[in-house]
Design goal:
The C terminus is likely disordered. Strand 2 and strand 3 form a beta hairpin. With about 220 residues, the chain is mostly helical. The protein has a single domain, classed as Transferase(Phosphotransferase) domain 1 (Transferase(Phosphotransferase), domain 1, Orthogonal Bundle). Helix content is about 40%, strand content about 5%. It contains 8 helices and 7 strands. It starts with a strand and ends with a strand. A 3-stranded antiparallel beta sheet has the order 3-2-7. Strands 1-4 form a two-stranded antiparallel sheet. The protein has a two-stranded antiparallel ribbon with strand order 5-6. The radius of gyration is 18 Å and the shape is globular.
Length: about 220
C-alpha cells in the first residue's frame, strides 16, 4: 500500500523527549495510484516552496511528488534555511534559486552550509547529501529516485560519517569533549531521521505516538 504525503515539510517532523522523530499532520495524505495508473488527480494544496512543479502545473500527484519535497527538506538541513523566506533579500528568498550558483564550486558550496554548525561537519558528507537532494529535485519526475533508493543512499552517507567519526578524523580532533558529544548526538538524530522518515518500498513509516513533550524542528 502506497501513501502520498502531499504536504511533506520540516514543520511536520516532530521530536519527542528521547529525540525520536515522528511524522505529523496526515490530513492531506492520499492513497497512491492503483496498478496500471500513473497518477492521482487532486486539487493543488500544500505549503509554498515544497510542492513539485508537475503537481503545481497539472494537479497530477505521484510518489515522486513527495520525493521532490524531500529534496527541499534535505537542503533545509544543509543550509538551515526555509524553502521560501520573504524576510530575506529578493535573490535569497527562494532556496533553490539561492543555492543554484553555489553548487558547482566547493568553496561556494561551503558558503551555503548552515553557519550555526560553526564548521563542525564533514564536507564530504554534506556534498553527498546535496547530491542526493539534487537527484530528488530533477525536473522530470520519472528521473527522480524512489524513496527506498533515497533511503539506501542516506544510509550509506550516515555509515560513512560514522566511520569518519570513529576513526578520530580532523573534525573530532578539533572538538572539546562536550562538542564531540554534541556532534555524536547530531549523528544519532540524523540516523533517526533516515530510519523513521523513509520506510520499506518507498512508503513513509507511520508510527503511533503520544504527544507528550514534542519539539518542532
Amino acid at each position: 500500500m502506497q501513501i502520498i504525503f502531499r504536504n511533506f515539510k520540516s514543520s511536520n517532523i516532530l521530536l519527542d523527549e528521547n529525540w525520536n522523530a515522528k511524522l505529523s499532520d496526515f490530513g492531506l495524505a492520499r492513497m497512491g495510484p492503483s496498478d496500471g495508473i500513473s497518477h492521482v488527480s487532486t486539487a493543488v494544496v500544500g505549503t509554498i516552496g515544497y510542492a513539485a512543479p508537475e503537481y503545481i502545473q497539472t494537479g497530477h500527484l505521484t510518489a515522486k511528488s513527495d520525493v521532490w519535497s524531500y529534496g527541499i527538506f534535505l537542503y533545509e538541513l544543509i543550509t538551515g534555511r526555509r524553502p521560501f523566506d520573504r524576510n530575506r533579500p529578493r535573490n535569497e528568498q527562494n532556496i533553490l534559486e539561492w543555492i543554484r550558483p553555489h553548487l558547482a564550486d566547493i568553496k561556494k558550496f561551503k558558503m551555503i552550509i548552515d553557519p550555526r554548525l560553526e564548521g563542525n561537519y564533514y564536507l564530504k558528507s554534506a556534498l553527498k547529501l546535496a547530491a542526493v537532494a539534487n537527484r530528488c529535485l530533477m525536473v522530470k519526475a520519472k528521473s527522480r529516485p524512489t524513496m527506498s533508493e533515497v533511503s539506501e543512499m542516506l544510509e550509506r552517507i550516515v555509515e560513512t560519517s560514522e566511520e569518519e567519526a570513529s576513526s578520530d578524523g580532523p573534525l573530532m580532533k578539533s572538538l572539546t569533549p562536550k562538542d564531540a558529544f554534541e556532534a555524536s548526538r547530531r549523528e544519532r538524530v540524523k540516523r533517526r531521521f533516515v530510519e523513521v522518515l523513509i520506510g520499506v518500498n518507498g512508503c513513509p513509516n507511520l508510527p503511533t505516538w503520544s504527544p507528550k513533550l514534542v519539539t518542532s524542528l
